[in-house]
Write a structure and sequence with these properties.
The chain has about 300 residues and is α/β, with parallel strands linked by helices. It is built from 11 helices and 10 strands.
Length: about 300
Amino acid sequence: MERVTDPVDIRARREPAAPIPEVVAKRRAERQRPKAVFDLRDVQVSYGVKPAVRGVSFDMGRNEITALIGPSGCGKSTLIRCLNRMNDLIPAARVEGKVLYHDQDLYAPAVDAVEVRKRIGMVFQKPNPFPKSIYDNIAFGPRVLGMKGGMDEIVERALTHAALWDEVKDRLKANAFGLSGGQQQRLCIARCLAVEPDVILMDEPCSALDPISTGKIEDLMIELKREYSIVIVTHNMQQAARVSDRTAFFTVAPQGDPDGASGNDPTHRSGVLVEVDETEKIFTNPSDARTEAYVTGKVG
């Protein structure tokens, strides 16, 4: 395809006014943003006739950790489940708007939901190992998908990436329920990694763990983002500040209120996105007073 060039402009040119520092900073940030792995456009998820979260538009970058924060009931978990079509499993759930994954509509009729969940893995709030051996937990997904290659190699690689191999390599045939809570969660992450996903979704992965186990999971997330894109829902403000590159803050607002800035009708409330930005800015200089009130603990 030939490159189309603009016609020559022979009018007298004026020297452009120097952009203000804020504009320069914004342009610089835009240039440095990685390519989007997800692009949400006016997404709304409803259960029955009532929306749980609405009007969500923002993108999530490749090889970044994106944190979703906000009070309970603001739709964070509902939204993250849209990203690998987990809400399809709820008969009353309805997703509107566009959820683009590498510029492809995840909800297009030709898209296979099973293939979506292979590429976009998920780790849940509570560790949920299968009642099988450690080895069989990791091998389950590759076997179901018919993945080629030595299973021993696949299991070792997944456990190594999840920083668990050295702790379990001598008891791979032992029941997974014999692991500690933190080890079980890392096993679930390894089980997710075994099918070679592109994205890892984590819905409050550390809420049931002690501080030491939480620290190991956080270190693991930072290590994994070299190869994967990660989206995490968390109520732990310190965790979001420690591990994420970008943070999206949600709140609950009356249904008739487009941005959640006013009103207080408790009967028709749903989640709305307040702002999304670099994590450092969200926690030190947010654009919205509601964000500042939440991250400083004044409300929430």
